[in-house]
Write a structure and sequence with these properties.
There is one protein chain. The chain has 9 helices and 7 strands. The protein is of the alpha+beta class. The strands form 2 sheets. Strands 2-1-5-3-4 form a 5-stranded mixed sheet. A two-stranded antiparallel sheet has the order 6-7. 34% of the residues are buried.
């Protein structure tokens, strides 16, 4: 068999092994559309094809106007958060073959203003994140003293390392029922990160952070539905962090 013939046969095998799925994409441009519309596309997929792969395939070959945000493609940057078959997920981390559905519906995340199609505005989430002072607070900083390391034991690291895995994808806020009814709520992302620093023994800003979150639109607004933790792609469990923070405010934790 010649080399050319083998290549043609291999290509033919790859094509024949591909399956197709209906990718239903929510289209909406607030500048001129009155409402959201869904457009269906037939796309091929393999067992390794992610939802982001499929969306980009549509954007490249079928509809160049599809708006989608993405970057790393390896579940590290958090850019490609969207609702996939009704659940907030990372598109680059979700394989079509694992959804077990002939129709894959992608929509923008809930609880965020829509910029266009699948892209939402995350400004408020980042503003809330900043409010909880997401950095180590110490008097002996590098500015006032010599640079040095603050050593930790494995046990001290274990107290907060799970919460340090947050990639700010916004899925937790999208799944939160309180975020849907209270636009001033800090949200599970910010509250989970507040606990990340409160639990860090190197940080000395616990009291100032607790004052920030001890508010009617802060930690007491959480109804502990647990939806935030269920959708987190990194296992951060902001719902648990919120409960621990309440423990500090109620005097059960020191």
């Amino acid at each position: 068999m010649s080399e050319t013939t083998f290549a043609e046969e291999q290509s033919s095998t790859e094509v024949s092994s591909s399956k197709t799925v209906t990718l239903r994409i929510a289209k909406f441009n607030p500048d001129h559309d009155s409402g959201q519309q869904f457009v269906d596309f037939k796309v091929p997929y393999e067992r390794w094809t992610t939802v982001l792969d499929a969306v980009l395939d549509v954007k490249k070959h079928l509809d160049h106007s599809v708006a989608v945000r993405y970057s790393c493609r390896q579940a590290s940057c958090g850019s490609c958060g969207m609702k996939i078959n009704g659940r907030p997920r990372l598109a680059c981390f979700t394989k079509i073959s694992e959804l077990n559905s002939d129709v894959v519906t992608v929509e923008p995340m809930n609880n965020y203003p829509i910029i266009r199609d699948l892209v939402v505005k995350l400004d408020q989430m980042f503003e809330n994140h900043k409010k909880v002072q997401p950095f180590l607070l110490r008097e002996d900083s590098e500015i006032t003293g010599p640079t040095k390391e603050f050593n930790q034991t494995p046990e001290q690291l274990e107290e907060y390392i799970q919460f340090a895995n947050c990639i700010k994808c916004g899925l937790c806020n999208s799944a939160c029922p309180t975020m849907a009814t209270d636009s001033s709520f800090l949200g599970p992302q910010a509250l989970g990160q507040a606990y990340r620093y409160v639990a860090d023994n190197r940080d000395k800003g616990k009291n100032s952070r607790l004052k920030i979150i001890d508010d009617s639109h802060g930690i007491w607004r959480c109804h502990f539905a647990g939806s935030c933790s269920q959708v987190c792609p990194k296992g951060v469990d902001p719902a648990m962090g919120i409960q621990f923070l309440r423990g500090y405010l109620l005097g059960f934790r020191k």
